[in-house]
């Protein structure tokens, strides 16, 4: 069983949807078979979960455990299932997101607590290597102009555009930036204790460089603010007489001149040009955020609550110039499926995250809040992505409790 879980994690991390498109799986394209619109990792985790249920020796105890610790997660599953039934009955848009975004996330949360501690140690090491490789690939894509896993985006009218920003192994620039920001926050909090202390600061610097490659403006600026507060906190601790490790003092003395020199060299090489272009030419992203609420308010009361006819919704979306998407998951679900369904799914998601929070170190709340803030600046989990499950694997691994028995299941 543990081998299957390990294989699932490898597929989840190293088989992005862009790779599926590259090998002809037709995951993102409008055409193709319906079965190819579901990520391979989703098929895998369904198989793993069924095998887990069949092989678990005390099924009554398992049911009691789930009812005692996963009520919020179970509520999320039923809310998402109600949403997809509503989609099927009324022939609405968004059927694919149920499997990769909702069902996958539910099954991931139900399985991760059963990964034994020694396998969690291995998984943590894998995650650090993954993020290092992911950052290197993202930076290479930016510097070389060659996308290792090119992302093709499709508008509802069938037009396609090759995304120039880096994606590395995380399928989409904004998802990549959000997950990377959450990883940086985790490292700043001291999570991921298997990462050697002398590698923590270089790893944070590498991930921040990768954020430039991904082009997520909000994620990069938020990370800068968080890092600035972290540095200020260390200065205040030092001024207050708290002992500071020698390696931290050496790095603090070296980081300013080295950082200035590195930024100057990168700027001269044009490393920041593409990122800065995002502030002047954002493809209408800022404009869409202004028009999101007027679009929702344009519906009558019934359509506002339960969603309008799909053809009418698309006509309204085009009228407001938002054919490339609504830049907020709750509003996007509200536009296409109604506020009632969107509220059920979003409340379920928050309860699921509360279930995750309860079994981890308390300061996991900081990357959770950071990730949610970033997810609310674009379509995120209102679309078809497995990256929310990647986030759950990350925080469940880096913030696992250390004060419990090695045989304890959280």
Q: What's the short story on this structure?
A:
This protein is mainly α and 410 residues long.
What does this protein structure show overall?
- With 410 residues, the chain is an all-alpha fold.
- The chain has one domain.
- The chain contains 19 helices and 2 strands.
- It has helices at residues 2-14, 17-22, 40-55, 59-69, 71-90, 97-111, 117-144, 173-188, 197-214, 217-239, 246-268, 273-280, 285-297, 301-306, 310-319, 329-337, 339-358, 365-375, 387-398; strands at residues 152-154, 160-162.
- It has a two-stranded antiparallel ribbon with strand order 1-2.
- Strand 1 and strand 2 (160-162) form a beta hairpin.
- The protein is globular.
- 38% of the residues are buried.
Question: Keywords for this structure?
Answer:
410 residues; mainly alpha; two-stranded antiparallel ribbon
Task: Give the CA-CA distance, first to last residue.
Answer: 18 Å
Helix/sheet category: mainly alpha
Inertia-based shape: globular
Helix amount: 55-70%
Quaternary structure state of the chains depicted: single chain
Provide the β-strand percentage band. Answer: under 5%
Number of domains: 1
In what order do the strands lie side by side in the largest sheet?
1-2
Order of helices and strands: HHHHHHHEEHHHHHHHHHHHH
Tally of contiguous helical segments: 19
Q: Biggest β-sheet, characterized?
A: 2 strands, antiparallel
Query: Average pLDDT, to the nearest integer?
Result: 81
What is the total tally of β strands? 2
């Amino acid at each position: 069983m543990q081998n299957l879980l390990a294989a699932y994690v490898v597929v989840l991390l190293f088989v992005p949807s862009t790779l599926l498109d590259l090998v002809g799986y037709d995951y993102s394209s409008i055409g193709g078979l319906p079965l190819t619109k579901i990520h391979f990792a989703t098929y895998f985790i369904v198989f793993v979960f069924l095998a887990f249920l069949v092989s678990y020796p005390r099924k009554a105890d398992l049911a009691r455990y789930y009812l005692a610790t996963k009520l919020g997660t179970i509520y999320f599953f039923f809310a998402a299932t109600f949403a997809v039934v509503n989609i099927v009955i009324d022939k609405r848009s968004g059927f694919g997101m149920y499997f990769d975004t909702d069902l996958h996330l539910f099954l991931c949360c139900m399985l991760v607590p059963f990964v034994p501690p020694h396998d969690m140690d291995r998984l943590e090491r894998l995650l650090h290597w993954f993020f290092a490789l992911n950052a290197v690939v993202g930076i290479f894509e930016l510097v070389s102009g060659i996308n290792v896993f090119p992302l093709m985006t499709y508008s509802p009218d069938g037009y396609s555009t090759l995304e120039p920003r880096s994606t590395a192994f995380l399928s989409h620039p904004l998802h990549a930036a959000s997950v990377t920001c959450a990883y940086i926050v985790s490292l700043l909090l001291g999570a991921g204790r298997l990462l050697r202390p002398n590698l923590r600061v270089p790893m944070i610097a590498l991930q921040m460089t990768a954020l430039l490659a991904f082009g997520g403006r909000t994620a990069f600026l938020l990370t800068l603010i968080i890092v600035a507060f972290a540095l200020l906190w260390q200065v205040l601790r030092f001024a207050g007489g708290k002992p500071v490790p020698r390696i931290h003092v050496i790095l603090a003395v070296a980081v300013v001149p080295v950082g200035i020199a590195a930024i100057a060299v990168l700027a001269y090489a044009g490393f920041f040009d593409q990122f800065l272009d995002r502030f002047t030419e954002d493809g209408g992203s800022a404009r869409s955020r202004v028009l999101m609420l007027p679009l929702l308010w344009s519906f009558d009361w019934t359509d506002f609550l339960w969603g309008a006819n799909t053809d009418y919704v698309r006509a309204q979306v085009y009228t407001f110039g938002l054919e490339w998407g609504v830049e907020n998951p709750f509003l996007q679900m509200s536009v296409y499926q109604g506020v009632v369904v969107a509220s059920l799914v979003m409340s379920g998601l928050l309860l699921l995250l509360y279930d995750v929070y309860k079994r981890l170190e308390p300061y996991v709340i900081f990357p959770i809040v950071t990730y949610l803030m970033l997810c609310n600046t674009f379509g995120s989990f209102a679309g078809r992505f497995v990256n929310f499950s990647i986030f759950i694997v990350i925080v469940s691994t880096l913030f696992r409790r250390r004060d419990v028995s090695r045989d304890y299941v959280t």
